[in-house]
Amino acid sequence: MPGELTEVTELATAIGTLPGDLATHLTAAVPPVELANVDPETWHRLTDAWRAGRHLGAFLAAHANGAALATAADGLRNRPPQRVEWRGPQRTPGDDTVPADLRIDHVYLVSCKYLSRVLLNAGPPRLFDRLLVGDERSGRNWFSTTAPQPFQALYRAAVDELNLPAMPDHVDDLTRDQQRTLKDSLPDRTLPPALIGPWADLCQAVAHESAARWASALASPRDQLRMLWRLLRIASVTYFVLGTQPTRRQRPPSVLRLRVDSAWDWSQAYELRSLTVSARPAGQPEVGWQAVIAGRHDGTEHEVLGHVEVRWSHGRFMGSPEAKVYLDTPHTRVPGYHPLV
To answer: Which of 37, 200, 231, 278 is 20 to 30 Å from the Cα of 1, by its Cα?
Structure first.
């Protein structure tokens, strides 16, 4: 189920596309008739957050973004929607390249993205080996797959340092309860000195093997283009990204309002010159990616940078790692991402 802040940003964006002011809508006992898939419990949480003054900035920013889409020439052009559907916690099985949270009048797809540079989360085998094709999950831990000896060395160092009883000899034999015991025994943010070296060795080995596997899978220009489209969420249809993006030096977040090209539009306007990947030194396994894209009409080259963090999502030694894909280039400088007008 989405968290409260996610519900606030997505539903306030939806309400922003409708006639009427935000306060009037959020003091009503039931959702607007145009707003679909919002059950009474969700609506109660939303209106309770509004009355209590929680997430006020998020409410106002999201509503303003929805209102901007309602008036934009690229968007609704002041046509009041008849139906605004909220996706909510539902997720489609299989490949889902459009990260849509809202659908307006069965046509306009909207992704709500607030204070995040994350493009997607994926299982490492799905990203590095299968290039984001399919949604099957591998049962084997990516650290064991790509760096079995450094992973085992880190595990042994942790067990010896913590003097934990009744632990198996091999990291792959840990039960869920034993994983939790090991995680809970380690500090959240800092490693004991005895684990710093083994962790650095594991990071380096995983990053290099992940980058090598990814580069091998990206063997042809066609593979590289399809990979780039999946990374940037370029899909078969045009959609909109509404939200805010983080800024540096503690400045207030900036507004993010984009129209994203379909693959058809992108292919007519741009060509991919190269997509390269490489291991990067970091505090966790990290693989950088770089795309060089040229405009078909003027030949101007654009560089798009990002990186992938391979990390435990539930704490050290808990479950399998995830591959979290970040966009390092500002959204507004990515070919195919157009400011909403």
So the answer is: 231
**Residue 100 to residues 68, 121, 132, 251, 326: CA-CA distances in angstroms?**
17, 15, 18, 28, 18
Q: At what angle do helices 176-185 and 148-162 cross, to 10 degrees?
A: 60
The Cα–Cα gap between 191 and 182 comes to 13
Please, what is the angle between helix 193-217 and helix 148-162, to 10°? 160
Q: Which pTM value belongs to this model?
A: 0.90
Q: What string of DSSP letters covers 129-179?
A: ITTT-S----SS-HHHHH-HHHHHHHHHHHHHHHT-SS--SSGGG--HHHH
Give dist(CA 193, CA 206) in Å, integer. Answer: 21
The pLDDT of residue 90? 74
Residues 308-330, mean pLDDT to the nearest whole number: 93
CA–CA gap between residue 104 and residue 84 (Å, rounded) = 5
pLDDT number for residue 173: 95
CA nearest 34: which of 117, 109, 103, 134?
103
C-alpha angle with apex 151: 145 to 152, nearest 5 degrees?
Answer: 110
Torsion angle in degrees (nearest 10) through CA of 226, 229, 235, 236: -40
Per-residue pLDDT tens over the stretch 266-301: 999 999 999 999 999 999 999 999 999 999 999 999
Q: What is the mean pLDDT of residues 116-131?
A: 92
